[in-house]
Amino acid sequence: MAWHTEDGIMTSANPTQEMFDLWRKSLEEGTQAWLKAMGQAAAPPPPGFDFTQFWRPLLTQGMEIWQNAATQGKVSPDFMQQWKSFMDQWIETWSRVMGQAMATEGFAQALGRYLDQWLTVQGPLKKGLEQYNDAALRTLGLPSRGQVVSLASQVVALEERIEKVEDRLDELKGLLKETLRAVQEHETAAQRRATGPEPV
Amino acid sequence: MLDPTASAETLKAISDEWLRNLRRTAKAVELMAHPAEPQIGLSPKTLVYRRNKARLYRYDGRRTRRVPVLFVPNLGISRPAIFDLQPGASFVEFMCGQGFDFFLLDWGVYGEEDNGLTVDECVTRLLPRVARQVLETAGTSELAVIGYCMGAPLSAAFVALHPDLPVRGFVNMAGPFDFSKAGLFARWLDKRFYDVDRVVDTVGAIPADWVRLGFKLLRPTMDVSTALNLWWNLDNDKYVEGYKALNRWANEYVPFPAEFFRQWVKDFYQENRLIRGELRLGGRRVDLGRLRCPVFAVAGAEDYIAPAPCVRALLDYVGTEDKTYLELPGGHISLIAGRAAFRHCWPRVAEWLAERST
Questions:
Q1: Phi, psi (5° rounding) for residue B86?
Q2: Is B190 in contact with A108 (Cβ distance < 8 A)?
Q3: pLDDT recorded at residue B260
Q4: Do B129 and B272 meet the contact criterion of CB atoms below 8 Å apart?
Q5: Is A8 helix (H, G, I), strand (E, B) or coil?
Q6: Interface contact B184, partner A, CB < 8 A
Q7: What confidence category does residue A59 fall into, taking pLDDT thresholds of 50, 70 and 90?
Q8: Tell me: the pLDDT tens digits for B86-114?
Q9: CA B59 vs CA A165, B3, B99, B148, B351: distances in Å
């Protein structure tokens, strides 16, 4: 089996291993470039930060590897097994690399900024929509979502109050039991005193 | 292209592989044509207590052990079906089979009406009632507590606030304690980047889709990896059944009540108050040093949600010398579901509890 690489023609008795080596090399180079790009994102990202950038290197690289693999050599009987191991390693490597990138402050900052932008748009939009819905439901003579939620909250609060009353009753029951026991002990002691000391 | 000099063996191997691929394709078509949902959470149980959305279940079994076990899972995120996934692959079934009187607290699915629910209320109001119910129902004077994931710090705080509570043992299964070591979530929820007040004030309850997004982002390649493994094992009926059950659970995310989420993120992730001894619940300071019962912590070495050092940290703060730590290969879920859990994790938890249930 032979194929062309940047370094020249590669021949091998173990094409799978060499394909992995080639892939690993290209992955390492791609990863470095990608991590560098992610590291630059630590500075304030440009407006409209594109999160699809995150996936592009992975997809592009995967496609390249498989284009290469598809154009090389003959079919091996354990091709599927090789393919599975190859995919497992590829996924695992990317998972590790992405984990490293996502653990950076740059990523957390970008994520926070993205959320912030979303909330800036979503806040007034949500409020406006709620007001519109409430008005529409009022016109139809139907209770609004807020009213239904408020009613449900009251039911929850009521349940909590009942539970508190039950707790108090349990406490009182406990106290009553203790008092009864004390009274019984007192009565027994009084009876013993009244009958006087038993003859020896 | 096939090599014309290929041996008969090689040709047979290729032909077998093609047949296997055909079987895989047929199974994939069958799965798509009849996407029947598997039944999960089938172990027989009795509802013994309910309050608002929360339910306390007692599972049927031989109950040969004297001390009942209260299992406290996470609130929000996912449903507790994972603990009783399928017959033969269920933590609940395993523990009942070991003779434990097993109680599970299902926090339930909260709605907008529960937005006022806080960590404080869960720990100081709900958990004491649940523990009392366990003792009353089991007719014993002692109990053991297992906290899983978020359920671990919540139940540990509860036990620490009630040193008089007769707890024979506390098990922390993949529960985060030191949030300075809580991995990616701790990084993303850093107060410099994540304004939890603004989030909660704008959206209210944290929608299930947000919870899903957060967890998917934690392991972006997980879906690809799962799909690949499914394809590879499509001709293995047992694997496919297990996958369907796990997948059904894994796609059912649960929202967080607004105030609970605010307090959870602020006090735990952003301020790390529990470990620093600054957490106040019900007006009282939570001191983990008052957790004086025997403690067992189990962590997954590849856990991205509650990394092992973050789980192990509990042992540095409890007020007991009887403490054990176990770190197993695998992630957050592999402690509670799957073959590895069945072989390595559950027997160790059962053994540890059994030694303290006599």
A1: -145, 155
A2: yes
A3: 96
A4: no
A5: strand
A6: yes
A7: low
A8: 888 899 999 999 999 999 999 999 988 89
A9: 29, 61, 11, 18, 19
Q: Residue A30's CB: how many other CB atoms inside 10 A? A: 16
Tracing tokens 């990896």 back to the chain, one arrives at B225
Cα-flanking dihedrals φ and ψ of residue B102, to 5°?
A: -100, 125
CA angle A118/A46/A30 to nearest 5° reads 110
pTM over 0.90: no
Collect all residues of chain A within an 8 Å Cβ-Cβ radius of residue B215: none
Q: What is the dihedral of CA B330, B336, B342, B348, to 10 degrees?
A: 90
- pLDDT tens digit string along B111-129? 888 999 999 999 999 999 9
Percent over 70 (pLDDT), chain A = 59
Please give the torsion angle defined by the CA atoms of residues B21, B22, B28 and B34, in that order, rounded to the nearest 10 degrees: -160
Spatial neighbors of A17 by CB under 8 A, at least 6 apart, are: none
pLDDT band, very low/low/confident/very high, at A7 (cuts 50, 70, 90): very low
Least confident of A150-159, B36-45, B138-147: B36-45
Place of tokens 């959320």: A115
Contact assignment for B217 to A74 by CB distance below 8 Å: no
Q: What is the mean pLDDT of residues B51-76?
A: 94
DSSP readout, A85-142? Answer: HHHHHHHHHHHHHHHHHHTSHHHHHHHHHHHHHHHHHHHHHHHHHHHHHHHHHHHTT-
* Among chain B residues, CA nearest to A127: B202
Judge whether residue B196 has pLDDT over 50: yes
Looking at the DSSP bridge assignments, the partners of residue B156 are none
Angle at B30 between CA B212 and CA B213, to 5 degrees: 5
- Return mean pLDDT, chain A: 74
Tokens of B79: 């449903």
List of chain A residues whose C-beta atoms are within 8 Å of the C-beta of residue B51 = 159, 163
Residues in Cβ contact with B232 at an 8 Å cutoff, skipping those fewer than 6 apart: A84
Spell out which residues of chain A touch residue B129, defining contact as CB-CB under 8 Å. Answer: 163, 167
* Structure tokens belonging to residue A121: 């748009």
- Token code pair at residue B10: 């090689």
Identity of residue A60: T
